[in-house]
Amino acid sequence: MYIVICPLVSRDVLKAIRCVQSAKNIFPTKVHNFTVVPIINSLDQIFIDDFSNWCDQNQISYRVTESNGTAPKGKNAVLDFFRESLFDGLCLIDGDDMCWPTWGLQIERHLIHHSSTDVIIAKPSDRVDNSGVGRKVA
């Protein structure tokens, strides 16, 4: 199964880079192949140019989509990309979040045991405290 991880990015180049790097650095899995394709959906042309240049320099495929500045437009752009692609599965993540290195292994373990799964919703942690326990920061 080929799964595309689509970070939806619109601002903050450093966090967008962190997000993409974390998704590209997940541990390999036995059954599933993960590919990272950031979706750039922003009204900020400077962000688009800076992040696109970073992707080009790092040989990362990406797609720039039309934006109206709202989250639904961006999420629909990701769904449109997926519908037009040859991927079997999609993981949409916010461009300021990150994937833990074991994320792909956890997804694969779930899909192997529950092969009829249509949708998985995973809540990322925005911060890890000193004890190593993830905690959402309001």
Residue windows where pLDDT falls under 50 for at least 5 positions:
132-138
- Distance from N terminus to C terminus (CA atoms, Å) equals 35 Å
Radius of gyration, taken over Cα atoms and rounded to an integer in Å: 15 Å
Count, helices: 4
Shape: globular
Oligomer: single chain
User: What structural class should be given to the helix and strand makeup?
Assistant: alpha/beta
H-E order: EHEEHEHEH
Give the proportion of residues in helices: 25-40%
Largest sheet: 5 strands, parallel
Q: Give the amount of beta strand, in percent.
A: 15-25%
Average pLDDT level:
88
Report the strand count: 5
Notes on the protein architecture:
The radius of gyration is 15 Å and the shape is globular. Helix content is 36%, strand content 16%. With 138 residues, it is an alpha/beta fold. Strands 1, 2, 3, 4 and 5 form a five-stranded parallel β-sheet that branches. The N and C termini lie far apart (35 Å). The C terminus is likely disordered. It is built from four helices and five strands. 25% of the residues are buried. Strand 1, helix 1 and strand 2 form a beta-alpha-beta unit.
